[in-house]
What we know:
The chain is an all-alpha fold. It contains six helices and no strands. 66% of the residues lie in helices and 0% in strands. The mean pLDDT is 89.
Amino acid sequence: MSHATTERTGTRRLRVLLPPLGVAAVTCSAFVVAAVVDPNEPGHYPTCPFLWITGLYCPGCGTLRTMHALAHLDPVAALGLNPLLVVMLPILLFWWGRWVVRAWRGRPMSTAVPHPAWLWAFIVVVMVYWVVRNLPFGAFLAP
């Protein structure tokens, strides 16, 4: 393999790795901001619009505090703030890792939409989580 071929292969690999690395950079930046600027102190971040308008928690309520807790290596606190996010993180990391490996190997990531049953199941889980965390018996899910 010539030097020019090796250089082209390296450039191509870098180009296909840029999207997953960009996602990682943005995600890590968000974690750094949440780690440094404590969301538990009032005035640092705006209130959730849904919570402000309705007084009810949305599925994302507690996400910044969860990220802050995870950044400070406190998974128990994170689980208490937004358990859905904590449960979803390993799945998201798996998909991201799969994306990186496929890009490195030169295989495109599948753009096929998952089976509708999976999408509906996810929507149902989020909706049930949303409702239950606002009911008295689901207070353990509230941030």
